[in-house]
From TrEMBL:
Superkingdom classification of source: Bacteria
GO cellular component, one term: membrane
Predominant cellular place of this UniProt entry's protein: other
Record PANTHER family: GLUTAMINE-BINDING PERIPLASMIC PROTEIN, MEMBRANE-BOUND LYTIC MUREIN TRANSGLYCOSYLASE F
Similarity comment text for this entry: Belongs to the bacterial solute-binding protein 3 family.
Domain Solute-binding protein family 3/N-terminal, residue spans: 31-254
Keyword list, A-Z: Signal
Species in which this protein is naturally found: Pelagibaculum spongiae
Compartment(s) of residence: Cell envelope
Protein name: Amino acid ABC transporter substrate-binding protein
Family annotation (CDD domains): PBP2_Dsm1740
């Protein structure tokens, strides 16, 4: 028994920790790889210089700074973002992902960092007819959604009688409203609020969210050390004023709009 124990310890010391997780990988690599789908205002976007900017981007930079590592951004199509995480294309999803029970079967979530909900932007001609989201639940209405999002799921659940049209990107979906090809766009409050303000007089906006959606960072299953670090990091930035400064920059000001492509 003593010889077996000595042999095991020798193997362990040669190969390093048997259960090294993502946190150890990041520190060894010296870089944290962050996955998202650019274009989700004001969370992750591309400016005129071709740089990634946004609330999540700033959060990722602060996170990397706290770890003492560099940050690498990995822009990924939304419908493949969880598979990409699971196959180690990056270490964490920081891309405005809503916590859902379905997603939680495949990934673990850190504590939510912001709460949003689904809203409606519609053709301006419908402003007098559609008073609340439920009014759209009729066969004559055409709704645009982004494929694979909680807006997509909410549209199917809340508007089963309406016609639902799926699009790969939020930009494609909202253009259908502006061009009069669909009646409304179902999407997250921050994005739709910006969309409506940029097109005042062309669209109508029902700003009251009709869903409750906590957004959180996603990591692979069985990675308790990484989750623990992320939650403690978030408590720190909330306590030292960093979170408030970032929030004001991206949600209480629209100066960043002029920097976009």
């Amino acid at each position: 028994m003593k010889k077996l124990l000595i042999a095991f310890l020798a193997i362990f010391s040669l190969n390093g920790p048997a259960f090294a997780g993502t946190l150890d990988d990041i520190l060894d690599r010296g870089t944290i790889r962050v996955g998202f789908d650019a274009g989700y205002q004001p969370f992750e976007m591309v400016n005129k210089k071709g740089e990634y900017i946004g609330f999540d981007i700033d959060f990722a930079k602060q996170l990397a700074k706290a770890m003492g590592v560099k940050v690498e951004f990995v822009n990924t199509a939304w419908d493949g973002i969880i598979p990409a995480l699971l196959t180690k294309k990056f270490d964490i999803i920081m891309g405005g992902m809503t916590v859902t029970s379905q997603r939680n079967l495949r990934v673990n979530f850190a504590d939510p960092y912001i709460i949003i909900g689904q809203t409606i932007v519609m053709r301006k001609e419908l402003a007098g007819t559609i008073k609340k989201p439920r009014d759209l639940n009729k066969p004559q209405y055409k709704l645009a959604v982004k494929l694979g999002t909680t807006g997509h799921e909410a549209a199917k659940r809340y508007f089963p009688k309406a016609q639902i049209f799926e699009f790969e990107t939020q930009d494609d979906a909202k253009l259908e409203v502006l061009n009069g090809k669909v009646d409304a766009f179902v999407y997250d409050l921050p994005y739709n609020s910006i969309f409506a303000s940029q097109n005042e007089g062309r669209v109508a906006f029902i700003a009251e969210p009709f869903t409750y959606e906590p957004l959180a960072w996603a990591v692979k299953k069985n990675d308790a050390d990484f989750l623990n670090w992320l939650n403690n990091f978030q408590r720190q930035v909330r306590g030292d004023g960093t979170y408030d400064r970032m929030y004001k920059k991206w949600f209480e000001s629209d100066r960043w709009l002029t920097t976009l492509k």
